[in-house]
Structure to design on (335 residues):
């Protein structure tokens, strides 16, 4: 039978939304890039220095995380720091098991000697914001339950240092780092301690186009079409880009000076269309008296480090990705 559903929204290469509410996230961009959006199955045995496991942390909702455990090395601490990871995708696409994240967070787990816990976030438009934020809060509270011995997770029980838990997020996942850290600052998380947060190219925007949005070229992982259409699908109905989740330095957001936040590392890319608003956030954090460090990658664009093709074919991109991983590793070691 021929379907009579009609296309009502499309984000080129990434997503189609139909009038019956169904969503098709089949990759329709360049075929040679499809592998980066394909899921990597978990493997409990160590491969290339890392084992992975998918764990349902809320049987009622089905909320799931992927755990990356690095293989023990001589000189490792008895317990390793934990990175609670929020993937990007404009709140609408991608998921924790995609190859781009598997590759990146395998490397980071090995280099930084950390356990990564990556959340399978609910996505818009089926689940508009703040659904992804709520998933982030739930994952943090689950880690606290594991730390207390109230929830079983053998890998974390045996290897995790819950006094050194870091939040980390790519692109829109960076927005969640701010939101989850702000809520965590109001909570009694003991015996867990939020030691820091890492925002990599967070999706901070304004309703009015910034200079960098107007001047920087589109990149494989960010176009102005993606920014506008993803946020229209993701933000609460009736909201605009000044919403606190997408503009935490704006007038609609709680004053940054009033927030209790852990030390943060803000990572920006020189050619990112969102660089100006990311730097506005950085300046607001400094003005608010917060502990924030800045890492800038030169000559690269938004989420460049996820682009496996560029990493293999462009020495500059590869060198900048190495610089990024080194900077994140140093931040973790120093906190």
């Amino acid at each position: 039978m021929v379907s009579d559903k009609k296309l009502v929204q499309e984000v080129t290469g990434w997503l189609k939304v139909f009038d019956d509410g169904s969503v098709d996230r089949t990759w329709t961009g360049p075929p040679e890039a499809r592998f980066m959006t394909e899921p990597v199955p978990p493997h409990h045995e160590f491969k290339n220095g890392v084992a992975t496991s998918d764990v349902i942390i809320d049987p009622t909702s089905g909320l799931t995380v992927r755990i990356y455990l690095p293989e023990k090395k001589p000189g490792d601490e008895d317990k390793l720091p934990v990175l609670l990871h929020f993937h990007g995708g404009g709140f609408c696409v991608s998921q924790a098991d995609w190859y781009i994240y598997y590759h990146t967070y395998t490397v980071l787990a090995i280099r930084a000697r950390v356990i990564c816990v990556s959340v399978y976030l609910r996505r818009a438009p089926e689940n508009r914001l703040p659904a992804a934020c709520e998933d982030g809060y739930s994952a943090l509270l689950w880690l606290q339950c594991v730390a207390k011995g109230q929830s079983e997770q053998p890998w974390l029980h045996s290897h995790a240092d819950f006094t050194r838990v870091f939040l980390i997020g790519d692109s829109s996942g960076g927005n969640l780092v701010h939101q989850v850290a702000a809520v965590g600052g109001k909570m009694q998380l003991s015996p867990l301690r939020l030691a820091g947060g890492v925002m990599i190219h967070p999706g901070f925007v304004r309703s009015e186009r910034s200079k960098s949005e107007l001047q920087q070229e589109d990149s494989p992982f960010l176009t102005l079409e993606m920014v506008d259409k993803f946020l229209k699908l993701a933000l609460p109905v009736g909201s605009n880009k000044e919403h606190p989740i997408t503009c935490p330095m704006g007038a609609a957001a709680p004053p940054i000076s009033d927030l209790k936040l852990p030390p943060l590392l803000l990572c920006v890319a020189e050619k990112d269309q969102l660089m100006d608003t990311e730097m506005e956030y950085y300046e607001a954090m400094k003005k608010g008296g917060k502990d924030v460090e800045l890492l800038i990658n030169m000559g690269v664009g938004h989420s460049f480090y996820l682009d496996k093709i560029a990493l293999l074919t462009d020495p500059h991109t590869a060198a900048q990705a190495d610089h990024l991983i080194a900077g994140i590793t140093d931040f973790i070691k120093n906190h």
Q: What stands out?
A: The two ends are 59 Å apart (CA to CA).
